[in-house]
């Protein structure tokens, strides 16, 4: 173990590391709250957490540094990303304010709170740092284990109960009980006929012999695209490629090209 | 550099997280801001541990991490079940105590 990182006062190397990575951490935190899409927020937060792991290591908390990467960046943030993907398309925040002036008030509150907190730290007498050299002498993990299993053993046991409760709670919340019998295929088809809305299967996307991609809606006899043929997810994202005007555009381009060529050949004759 | 700077950084990160909770309305992002605040507290605990020269602060940070993991599991399950019934993750739309 290095002695410099355990020393009471930080070395120049640690200062350089602090200023560079601290900037990254603050930028990541700001991106977390300012990005519109939840996926970008999650990735920025993951970056901030990795930087914090490096800070833990620099402060002599070797076990916590590794746990931070494994548990936070590895498990929790991936769980977040998983849920963002599950919630999916509508995850982007709307920018419409429901309460008037709420954003500015919230930002002002945050600023005031930050000033209060930082002024409090500035006023406290925190000049003396003992350093962890003595506490970490027998190894950081060994020191933590000795404390957890003696002084904090009750808290540790309660933590086990908490984890089991959380696991059961998550299962209860996400598990859906089926209250009625599943419909058979016959009943489903009978219901469809009775409704009379869409009796045959939905039409397939794509235009015969031209485009067969799933984002191209099929054309109706009058040449207009049919929304029914495209997947509702693509419809909601606005990722439909309309090719109803393509044939006319191509014809126009062909006419223009032929005109250019003919015009040039006539010029050459002269 | 004085290690107190770590405490200033922790205070800054906590403030950013608190402002995020107030500003954002997507439940998932609000949750991420809460995680950011917990992380800032953990950093402060680790630095206090270094200041006092014992490992108690690191133990508290460790327990905070466990509680945060349990909280994320239950919270995300709640968000998913709200999303299933209301088809939105915005905290404005979940204005009733029932699903």
Task: Give a short summary of the structure.
Chain A has 270 residues and is mainly α. Chain A has nine helices and no strands.
List keywords for this structure.
heterodimer; A: Four Helix Bundle (Hemerythrin (Met), subunit A); 9 helices; 61% helix; extended; B: mainly alpha; 3 helices; 0% strand
Q: What string, H for helix and E for strand, traces the elements of chain B in order?
A: HHH
Got a strand count of chain A?
0
| Major β-sheet annotation of chain B | none
- From the 3D structure, determine the CATH topology of the domain at 12-88 in chain A: Four Helix Bundle (Hemerythrin (Met), subunit A)
Oligomer: heterodimer
Q: Summarize the biggest pleated sheet of chain A.
A: none
Please work out how many helical segments of chain A DSSP would assign: 9
Contiguous low-pLDDT stretches of chain A (5 residues minimum) are 1-5
Q: Quick one: overall form of chain B?
A: elongated
CATH topology of the domain at 26-86 in chain B: Helix Hairpins
Give the overall form of chain A: extended
For the record, the CATH architecture of the domain at 12-88 in chain A stands as Up-down Bundle
Please name the CATH architecture of the domain at 26-86 in chain B.
Answer: Orthogonal Bundle
Number of strands of chain B: 0
CATH class wording of the domain at 26-86 in chain B: Mainly Alpha
**How many separate helices of chain B?**
3
How would you characterize the overall build of this protein?
The complex is a heterodimer of chains A (270) and B (99). The radius of gyration of chain A is 32 Å and the shape is extended. Helices cover 61% and strands 0% of the residues of chain A. Among the domains of chain A are: 12-88, Four Helix Bundle (Hemerythrin (Met), subunit A); 206-269, no CATH class. Chain A contains nine helices and no strands. The longest helix of chain A has 26 residues, at 62-87. Chain A is an all-alpha fold and 270 residues long. Chain A has helices at residues 12-34, 38-58, 62-87, 102-123, 140-148, 153-174, 185-195, 232-237, 246-269. With 99 residues, chain B is mainly alpha-helical. Chain B has a domain at 26-86: Helix Hairpins (Orthogonal Bundle). Chain B is built from three helices and no strands. Chain B has helices spanning 4-23, 27-52, 56-86. In chain B, helix 1 runs antiparallel to helix 2 (27-52) and helix 2 runs antiparallel to helix 3. The longest helix of chain B is centred in the last third of the chain and has 31 residues, at 56-86. Chain B is elongated. At the A-B interface, helix 1, helix 2, helix 3, helix 4 and helix 5 of A face helix 1, helix 2 and helix 3 of B.
């Amino acid at each position: 173990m290095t002695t410099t990182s355990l020393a009471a006062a930080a070395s120049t190397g640690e200062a350089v590391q602090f200023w560079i990575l601290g900037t990254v951490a603050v930028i990541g935190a700001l991106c977390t709250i300012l990005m519109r899409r939840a996926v970008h927020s999650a990735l920025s937060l993951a970056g901030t957490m990795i930087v914090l792991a490096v800070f833990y290591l620099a402060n002599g908390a070797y076990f916590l540094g590794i746990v931070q990467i494994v548990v936070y960046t590895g498990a929790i943030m991936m769980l977040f990303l998983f849920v963002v993907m599950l919630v999916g398309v509508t995850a982007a925040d709307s920018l419409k304010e429901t309460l008037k002036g709420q954003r500015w008030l919230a930002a002002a509150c945050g600023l005031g709170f930050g000033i209060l907190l930082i002024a409090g730290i500035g006023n406290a007498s925190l000049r003396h740092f003992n350093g962890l050299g003595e506490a970490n002498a027998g190894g950081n993990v060994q020191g933590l284990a000795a404390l957890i299993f003696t002084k904090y053993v009750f808290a540790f046991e309660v933590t086990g109960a908490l984890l089991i409760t959380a696991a059961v709670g998550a299962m209860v919340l996400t598990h859906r009980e089926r209250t009625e019998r599943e419909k058979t295929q016959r009943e489903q088809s009978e219901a469809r006929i009775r409704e009379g809305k869409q009796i045959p299967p939905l039409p397939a996307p794509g235009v015969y012999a031209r485009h067969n991609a799933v984002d191209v809606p099929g054309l109706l006899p009058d040449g207009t695209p049919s929304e029914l043929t495209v997947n509702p997810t693509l419809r909601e994202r606005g990722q439909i490629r309309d090719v109803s005007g393509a044939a006319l555009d191509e014809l126009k381009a062909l006419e223009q090209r032929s005109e250019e060529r003919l015009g040039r050949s006539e010029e050459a004759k002269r | 550099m004085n290690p107190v700077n770590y405490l200033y950084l922790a205070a800054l990160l906590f403030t950013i997280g608190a402002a995020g909770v107030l500003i954002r309305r997507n439940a998932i992002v609000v949750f991420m801001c809460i995680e950011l605040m917990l992380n800032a507290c953990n950093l402060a605990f680790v630095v206090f541990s270094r200041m006092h020269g014992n490992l108690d602060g690191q133990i508290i940070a460790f327990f905070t991490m466990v509680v945060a993991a349990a909280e994320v599991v239950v919270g995300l399950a709640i968000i998913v079940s709200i999303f299933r019934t209301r088809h939105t993750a915005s905290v404005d739309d979940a204005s009733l105590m029932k699903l």
